[in-house]
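Can you give me the bound-state structure? Components:
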Amino acid sequence: MERTFAREVGMLRRGDGEYFEGEGILAITKALLQSGVSYVGGYQGAPVSHLMDVLTSDSKGLMAELGVHTEVCANEAAACAMLAASVNYPIRGAVTWKSTVGTNVASDALSNIASVGVIGGSLIVLGEDYGEGSSIIQERSHAFAMKCSVWLVDPRVNHPRIVDLVEKSFELSEASNTPVMMEFRIRACHVTGRFATKDNRKPEFSMNDPIPEPEYDLDRIALPPSTYLQERMKVEQRFPAAIKFIRENKMNEFFEGDCDDVGIICQGGLYNSVIRGLQQLGLADPFGKSRIPIYCMNVTYPMVPEEVTEFCANKRSVCIVEEGFPDYLEQALNATLRKADLNTTIVGKDVFPKAGEYQSEVMMNGLAKFVEGAVPKGIDLAPVAAVTKAVADNKAYAAELLGAPIPKRPPGFCTGCPERPVFSALKLVQQDPEIGKMHISADIGCHTFSTLPPFNMGNTVTGYGLGLASSAGVKDTLKGHTISIMGDGGFWHNGLSTGITGAVYNKHDNLLIVMANGYSSATGQQQLPSSTAGGLRPPDTVVPIENALKGVGVKWIKKQYTYKVGRMRNLIKEALTSSEKGLKVIIAEAECQIAKQRREKPIAAKLLKSGKRVVRTRFGVDEDTCTGDHSCIRLSGCPSLSVKPNPDPLRKDPVASVLTSCVGCGLCGEVSDAAVLCPSFFKAEIVQNPGVIDTIAHRMRAAVISMFQGKLDTREPAASQSIQPDTKVAAE
Amino acid sequence: MSALPERPISMVIGALGGEGGGVLTTWVVRAAEMCRFPTQSTSIPGVAQRTGATTYYVEIFPAPHEDLGSQELVMALYPAPGNMDIVVTSELMEAGRMLENGMVTPDRTTLIASTHRVYSVVEKSAMGDGLFRADKLDNAAQKLAKRAVLFDMATLSQKEGTVLNAIVLGVIAGSGELPIPVDNFRKSIRESGVAVESNLKGFELGLAYMSGELKLPNAVPEKKIPKARPSAESLITDVLATYPAEAQAIVSEGVKRLVDYQNPAYAKLYLDRLSEILTIDRERGGERNGWALTVETGRYLALMMSYEDIIRVADLKSRRSRMERVRADVLAKPDEPIHVTEFLKPGFDEMTSVMPSWLGRPIMNWARGKEWANNYNFAMRVRTDTINGFMRLWTLSKLRFYRPKTYRYQEEQKAIEGWLNTVRSAAALHYQLAVEVAELANLRKGYSDTHKRGLQNFTRIMDKVGVPCSTAAKDPAWGVNALSKLRAAALADPEGDALEKAFSELDAAPQAAAAE
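Here's the bound-state model for the whole set.
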């Protein structure tokens, strides 16, 4: 896993009279334990990976004491299905995943559980991967809440409030027999803060105190005629019960302000940004005291009609701050006011952008527009306009001074990533006239970076584990080759059944490359059924991908170590030109470099410190033979393979250069070999703490070589003046 | 209880994913918490940041918890343009991004940035020079920031064996922009418990820089100017006597290069060839044009004449200075032996390049057009730190004296004469056209396939535009524009798509191109 949680586990144990300090997602985790959950499940993905990581790694002991069952689920559908435990039994449970992609996968289970209802409090923690830093499609989870009639909580970002709302949400779930979804945006998951802790609550029924009897109730089965009854229950009982609970427990918040002829309604998660926007405009103080009254919707579904009509009555104009598209809240608000026959003007997506994240500047400008349009009594508009103008002017001035836009810096494969060489090989194989350009059905994972520079490879990305499935329609309609990519994460998530089983059954005759780097790397290096964890996991617990492939009937299976670019290229070509029919699978194997470095670096450091011989490998480029055409970079894109200004006074183009961050994976050499690039690359193995033999061999070699070089050097004093500072670095 | 501050101190850190911006953030937050200041930080980690640009955001309310009473702070999650007190970036282009986003304002922002460059993949994968020109950034930073602290922290950290983030922390602490005692930051580093020694070292360096105790040496110049060999000295004296000041640097370098590459006679040939160009340049008003014709022809003539054959590569790779450079590059300590492996992959081109022309020419004629021969090559891994490996390269490098008899030498001289002819006749018609023709020689670079592709592009552009324009068969003024576009297109992508497009655009609308 990408990080350890030793410190956080201590925090999770804290009780009455103590404080928790840390990230939002871990505060939520602590709140689950304070609410007495019996089980927790989920599927990793930013920004909620940590919730699962902390519960399933360092805090196993605590979970056993409390009797909480934790499970790393195969995918989000499996996680959501876990909530079935709360359908029949009065036990609380929580599941988590990244939304909306995870919610899409979980939908089948979600609909069924929402229909039959729950008796034990059921909470779904959604990591809302929306806006800056997102790696997924931009949609709203709100739609799922509406169509399934489950409740959506969007808490204002404040640790004590979040923890309180988690606890309330379990009660809400029980009071209304409905699962509750709670959404947290990326920054909210990673925001630091503190709250007063309470003792963890041991669940009434748990692994330590089992439920005595199974329960059978036909009404809790999603089959007609129960489903008709369940639909009516949603409308007639669960909805009113939820609204009653939300009101009585004040889950939503009203903040007063002196300019009460207008008002602002916002999603709870946006409250902090609203306050900061108002503060910038001179309309609020750092403690949230706003001149304009605010109704903060910590529960965004269902909307509480009584509360919104109460807030809007006697106001000329109300601004609804709602992020994302479509504007469900604005529509609902308008409908509610119409029914209540209130004439308050509702302003929303006409002053705010219809799409995109409401970052600080967007927020401030939107609020300024609202204020300028509504003209609240007692507010001087001139300073408001001056603030927004100053910000805009400063940006314009900056653009003028900079002269040109700053180039984008897209993400990419890490230094030494084992997936990069596969794309180098794919680039080379497409240069082969016998193969030509291919259609590549890409997948979700770190390998999706192939679609960005310098590889620019991958024609479609349709979902996690869907690389192979998404090639079905195109493979026979396209003249050239169609190949698919799948990561080992996607393979186990659903790719094995959705893609491979289907392709074998339908007699596909194409190539699938499975990127087996041993972890679900993109989400933080969680282990998978096929993980060996670099040899740290007992072999009998590992399910090799190869066996799974054989099991579903794949005949042509080849494994290839990814860094061998030439061999990988030849193997891909072999698969594409093979006369053998049927699905061909190349398992491209090599361990995630981040995981490998994290394991090996401390060991090497320890050996080094104790005076043991350690060989460090680095690659380099000779600056005087490099001609600056950068073919090597276009075939690699490694962050540590960079360029520097050409030291040659005659040449203009920058030369390639290997940075000190190089981990010596060897791809540079492989690529220049496989692609027949240039003789500029060299591999250097630095023998640290050399032994006697090393030293003697080195001295003898150096003496002989120096003898020959000596002659050369008298003839040619080519040593340049500015080489001196460089050599000094080496001496330190 | 004193009056509470009006607002929190806002600080944004712009970094690249994987650089440890999170660690820096934690240090600052912990140092603030030791003062019992309410502090909040947030970040946007995730796969979308891996190696790309990302930010960390910190708010510190500079009054202890107990002064707040029952009041509860509402802190923001996003940095806001116009609202930033401290902007930190670990790299120069990221500083530019902060300026562009309006995060730096003259009324309150202190900008702290390391001025080294980490090139983005788009910049470094260009076939020529695709680097972002950062020359306007410094001026923009000085004008937009209340205070700008800009220096190369990366070079300093590497030299001192510490990390950049530790230096940044020292600079933040030393700037006095945060009302936090300097010792808190030291405690914070110790508390984190990772690489404490080297982090503290970096921290003190940052502090010392801010107090003025640490003066940084001038940056190493980009260009390494080699010393002239004794045998080149008289030729260089000639250059200094004959050539205008603007051209002296390049032409002297050309002389040095060719003496080093072959011998003084070869350098003399270079000067003879170039002297014709100088004469034309004088006649055609070279002075008004900064002697661009002589400078650019002098540059590329020297590069073409010192083409990279395996003799040259072996020569460069077996030098003493090269071994020293390798040791420096890989940060090897003096007592650490290093093993150096070279990746060589000669094919027909490389082998015939060292054959005498009576043998090389028929073989190349035979091999040309045969696909297997085009693709044929064999991998050679040579350990240049061993006596055996070194001797192989050293012996190859000794073939230098025999070079003029080789097939490749004769082919190259033919190409040089052809190109020089075109430069000369172009100069007679249109000064700028001649400069463009001279610069076209930049396409002739690289090895193996890259080299072949460059040659093909060069020949094609010369045949279609360069030569016809120089002989007035096509409009020379149009040619200037066309050549510069085609040259850029040839370097736009290795597949040649941009060049095809540029050619078809020229064919489709020659007038439009001329009119531009």
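A couple of observations. The two ends of chain A are 35 Å apart (CA to CA). Chain A touches chain B through 138 residues (CB under 8 Å).
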